[in-house]
């Protein structure tokens, strides 16, 4: 064969129009961002189509919500329910003339237990059964945060001694520990769980299943009057756990109710999780399936309440009101608008315990509700 001539390779010159790698990277990232933000705007349309329209046309709301409840459980990641005996361990932490405070652990799975503080009023008759309020702390919190009545402590300023104050009103209270503590340590657990189709709420929900069965077994507890009240990450729990566990008679979400999908993914607001260190927050495909209004609809027809401080930096009143309006509409359509409320108050990220106490007294303390 004839010999081929060598290709002439052009010499590089300083004025060659090479691609700027930094500029290319910025264009790629901006393109991805525009794509995600476009999807974000259309998520609500998907939820209207797949959740609200089937709900509105259903002749069997109980059955339809059961299907949605299974779907939410799958979205968050479900585990086999605990089957161990409680193996309850308890010790007295403090005692006053009004109540006794116990530290309690109960078994959930082999090597996994649930831990919290139980406060029991002293004036319970031998055959009386009292309502319970499960009081859930927030991020990096401990059960003691909910019960402390030391007015000089920072935790009291946030939680207002809620669990103890309620016990003084006659409620049994239980303040459980949720495993969102330890900075990156628990976030790594979330990252390990996600590829398995699980999340922190897979564990938390299972712990609450065992916890509520244990509470119902106590001789002084009315199993039909167990309510939930959570602040911040405890408010996230108030949206998810009572939506999945129907044994909770009502739910109060404090300092967390939001336009949750936008809170996770928007790049237009400084309080979005896109700009903060809580990288465990995004949950698989909730944008197309369950925002907070949809979760609240699974709590209905049980009483539901939002507690919102005007100066709470987790969001803005406009977002909260927009998402809450969908919940109120659903309760209105069910014919029970008096079982859904929102209370705004002139503070920041904390429990207010004014209107919420009235709701608890109305729907838990009174047996006929």
SSE topology string:
HHEEEEHHHEHHEHEHHHEHEH
The main pleated sheet reads as:
9 strands, mixed
Please report the distance between the alpha carbons of the first and last residues. Answer: 98 Å
Mean pLDDT: 94
Low-confidence stretches: none
Which class do the helix and strand fractions yield?
alpha/beta
Helix content: 40-55%
Neighbour order of strands in the largest sheet? 1-2-3-5-4-6-7-8-9
Radius of gyration (CA) equals: 25 Å
**What's the helix count?**
13
What is the subunit organization of this protein? single chain
- Using DSSP, what is the number of strands? 9
Shape designation? globular
Q: What is the beta-strand fraction? A: 15-25%
Fold and architecture overview:
With 369 residues, the protein is an alpha/beta fold. 43% of the residues lie in helices and 18% in strands. It contains 13 helices and nine strands. It has helices at 21-57, 61-76, 143-147, 154-159, 162-168, 184-193, 200-217, 233-244, 260-265, 286-289, 292-299, 317-333, 355-365; strands spanning 89-95, 99-109, 112-121, 130-136, 172-176, 221-231, 250-254, 304-309, 340-345. The chain has a nine-stranded mixed β-sheet with strand order 1-2-3-5-4-6-7-8-9, sandwiched between helices. A hairpin with a 3-residue loop joins β1 (89-95) and β2 (99-109). The N and C termini lie far apart (98 Å). The mean pLDDT is 94.
